[in-house]
Amino acid sequence: GEDGAPPAPERVLFPPTFSVSEIKNKQRRHFMFLRWKQQQRKGGRGPPGGRAPPKAIPKTIENQRVYDETTVDPNDEEVAFDEATDEFAPYFNRQTVPKILITTSDRPRGRTVRFCEQLSTVIPNSHVYYRRGLALKKIIPQCIARDFTDLIVINEDRKIPNGLVLCHLPEGPTAHFRMSSVRLRKEIKRTGKEPTEHKPEVILNNFTTRLGHSIGRMFASLFPHDPQFIGRQVATFHNQRDYIFFRFHRYIFKSEKKVGIQELGPRFTLKLRSLQRGTFDSKFGEYEWIHKRREMDTSRRKFHL
């Protein structure tokens, strides 16, 4: 340049199909990439006083979700009819009052026992029964005779709760879940005081397909109809990428505008393994849905609930 000033850096114009990754030399590639970034920043702003380009929404597995043809339209008449006549209709029509038996695999150990006790403080009108050698097949008729509407079985492996079977009575269906990430009350930082006897609100997030609807109805029908808002307790089943995260909170009004929440616990994660018509039957059960990993998990963006 004139006056001995260093020449202004020339603007690098890459051909439209060019990719920086084609440059073999690592330092050069990095330098060109930074150069290109810089240009983007300069060029991307548009004319002074112009509008900034709209912010790109980052792609996530969820928002790139493969469309599922069974996603339920809230106004679908067929779904409405099915739900008016399915096994949960008596609950939703308020003809039954939830009464839950929580039981375990045979001779449960410490952690599973504590988990069942804590779960029974989350679900009103639930009763814990520890199994000693009694087959599930025999428990079910006794439950039905005593007006239990649901049976929850907590299975364990090496003293750690790792499975949950949810059986709706008297006619089913029965869902098998793998259970993981169980945290008991003591293991959650800054837990609130013990839950009260109030009936909690229930929040079901993201159960959008037909299968998701069925599972959501199963969870909903474990809880009594009219939550006692005065207790400010909330049970949440949040479905994300087919993992169902369970949390139990109490919220606290700090002022008219501010609300704080305290986690009460326990917390756990469920993954549906199968949904079976009728009550628990490991031999002759008719399955509506089974998770078959090799066939179903073809895309990381395909979800079933």
From TrEMBL:
<dbReference type="Pfam" id="PF04427">
    <property type="entry name" value="Brix"/>
</dbReference>
<dbReference type="GO" id="GO:0005730">
    <property type="term" value="C:nucleolus"/>
</dbReference>
<keyword id="KW-0698">rRNA processing</keyword>
<feature type="region of interest" description="Disordered">
    <location>
        <begin position="36"/>
        <end position="57"/>
    </location>
</feature>
<protein>
    <recommendedName>
        <fullName>Ribosome production factor 1</fullName>
    </recommendedName>
</protein>
<feature type="domain" description="Brix">
    <location>
        <begin position="98"/>
        <end position="281"/>
    </location>
</feature>
<comment type="function">
    <text>May be required for ribosome biogenesis.</text>
</comment>
<keyword id="KW-0690">Ribosome biogenesis</keyword>
<dbReference type="GO" id="GO:0000460">
    <property type="term" value="P:maturation of 5.8S rRNA"/>
</dbReference>
<dbReference type="GO" id="GO:0000470">
    <property type="term" value="P:maturation of LSU-rRNA"/>
</dbReference>
<dbReference type="InterPro" id="IPR007109">
    <property type="entry name" value="Brix"/>
</dbReference>
<dbReference type="GO" id="GO:0042134">
    <property type="term" value="F:rRNA primary transcript binding"/>
</dbReference>
<dbReference type="InterPro" id="IPR044281">
    <property type="entry name" value="IMP4/RPF1"/>
</dbReference>
<dbReference type="GO" id="GO:0030687">
    <property type="term" value="C:preribosome, large subunit precursor"/>
</dbReference>
